[in-house]
Please model this.
Amino acid sequence: MRRLVKLNLVVLLLLSHAAAEGGFSRASTLGRQSESRGADLRAIGKLPSREKRWALLVGVSNYEDENITDLKGANDARALKEALVRYAGFPEGQVVLLTTDEPRERQPTRENIIRRLSLLKGQIPSDGLFLLAFSGHGIENNNQAFLIPSTMSFVDDIEVLRETAVGVDYVKKQIKLMNVQQVLVLLDACRNDPTSGKSDSANPLSPAFTKGFNFDVRNSEVKAFATLYATSVGDRAYEYAEKGQGYFTWAVVEALKGAAANERGEVTLYGLKKYVEEMVPRAVRADLRRVQQPFAVVEGYMGEDLVLAVRGAAVTKPPAAAPLSTQRDGDWSLVDKRSKVELQLFLSKYKDDFEAALTLKRLEDSEPRAGETMTIKLTDKVQMTFVYIPSGSFKMGRDDLYTEERPAHTVTIGRGFWLGQTEVTMEQWCAVMKVGCKFETSERYPMVSVSWIYAQEIIRNFNEQQNVYTWRLPTEAEWEYAAKAGTAGDTTGWDSVAWYYNNSGDKRLEGNTDANKAQENKNRVRPVKQKAPNNWGLYDMFGNAWEWVSSKPMPYPYNPNDGRESQSGEGTLRVARGGSYWDATWSLSPTFRRPFNATDNFGHLGFRIVLSPRK
Model:
């Protein structure tokens, strides 16, 4: 029997697969419908560190099936992402957004939802945190609950639903397979019957959904969890027309922003739940004269101690310009005064100056957004654009191909950095080096035939010409992290993102690489930014030209302190990444490592730059 349901709930689940060593059991009855089950547990009172927090936010506003009513799910997801990044300490590069107003690869389709869940299984460390949020319609059929993706057409057939919707049981299974210690699941879904057209037919919360995220504590399926529902079973939730989102998500976001903070400015699990339980009924009653009462099930948590967010963590709006003293005037002319990022980089050089330090403090509360760009002047006519790569953790290497890529292992990038949006171009090279610049080709071509040693020359020249920024090559770990851009890195659509052996000449080549064929076909380096960028806005990370990194080709696991990042020794080997116009697809993989001699200057060798403030 089919039953349409509204998924008006937020589930906060923090799971731990660590063995319980004595301790105690604690079940929090924080709502008017709470459940308690005895278990021998040690309560959790702290979230993982910032770089170990990941989130997948799914928001569906529009459905391809015209018979399914539209919602405001995309607004919910975007508002939640901003709150998580600005107030709850999630690195922006580790918050994946799937909404109906995003590009095709980030649409809330069944394929994308399932693929993202699968990819994240290999990215989140076991001691990390995973947050899943879904805002959209749901459906129940034969006591089985399903989330409705944007591309599903409504069919009252359980077998079709299993193939076209996303089963709640499937989501639960994927979460358990992640083996992460802490998981938060937030669902604030449809407010009415998805097939009621433009009417406002009720669509009450179904027990099938509450059962779907009910984990077995007694059998160590999880160690602790908290479930916060937007409304009681049998009731419905409502949309906040003025805000363009659900009342429930609105209350959750406001709580994280600080409305639920205690006297220390901390938003705890208990504080968030208490605020939502009080504010949602009050707002719905005042605006709509209806009833909506959230409730919670909590086990194994120190609800009053578990801090989810901190009030005032968001960056305040930066000033139009920073105060200057005469000694800074020369460098100040290089800075775009409208850019918070430019101001941070500039002021960090003068952090011992009282006025500069005071302004810098106003700007440094949180890192820039993943993919945020910054352009600096090399000359009056030549600029270079950089992309912000956020801090975070990722799986480096792989176990299924080459020995040099093994073993796959987790690496943490502790601090974000700025990486060139493209490889260094001929025009940019000339602007800094001022020699060897009689090129006949366009300035948009990457500078190639550059040895590792010669790349250090442009870096040294730039660093000597100014004292605001420091240039350097990326490390091998930084390059792979930026290339993967929050994904596992696998792709089969190389033609859309890369120039390589098959597509870089006058006509397409097939089969294995053949140097003679490539030469006859005039395979060649191509202008930058002609292919699609990756998720963080970096162009030509794959193909076109190999890119030097600072690292020596030492065995994994990667350790920056074992000598591989030593910058001395002309005769030593160095690693290049990304493949080139001359190479097959296997060399384009973000995990593939190719050693060259530091003095090699082949026609497919180039580089891109990391930029950081001068210390």
